Amino acid sequence: MGLWEADALTAAHQQGVGRLGKHLGLEKIYREHYTFVWRILRRMGAFDVDDAVQEVFVVMHRRGDELDVSDSVRPLLYGIARKVAAQQRRKANREPPPLALVAKAAPDPEQSVAQAEAAQVVRDALDAMDDDKRMIFLLADVEGMSIPEVARCHGVNLNTAYARLRAARVLVERAVQRHRAREEGSRVRARVHR
Fold this sequence. Notes:
Blueprint: H1 3-15, H2 26-43, H3 49-62, H4 74-92, H5 109-128, H6 131-142, H7 147-154, H8 158-192
Helix pairs in contact: 2-3, 2-4, 3-4, 4-7, 5-8, 6-7, 6-8, 7-8
């Protein structure tokens, strides 16, 4: 690379600070955020998750010059993923499947059953929530996104995001408490009948 080419690259990079550009950083974004995008699309009910992930990054590539990634890229990826998942669901003309939170298989059968029951309690609690609370809960507590990032993803102010997260956590906690109370009642009844 000649001196002129190096200067041109440096100038182009400086002009595009905060912009994705056609190839600038896309490979890095893909490597760092592929798993995040895949999980989000799966939870949003994308019909073909692998195709949807590809579409998200194709949109990033196509619109790279327009997209501002000077802050966090995850809200941007979330927004694109949300639109891609909605397109896939409309195209497939079907409802999104229930959330598929996968629990790790446990080595012992009793532990496997307990984990499956716990996962089902959480899935049921999430299914009972409205979409806004569910997605904010998943992004913050499962994906580990900061609340400011989550607020940007949903286009709401910070206080609204915090309130929805708090409400979602209360709903999950109540579901867990009801499940524990039912289990305790079953154990007590089993001891009485012995």
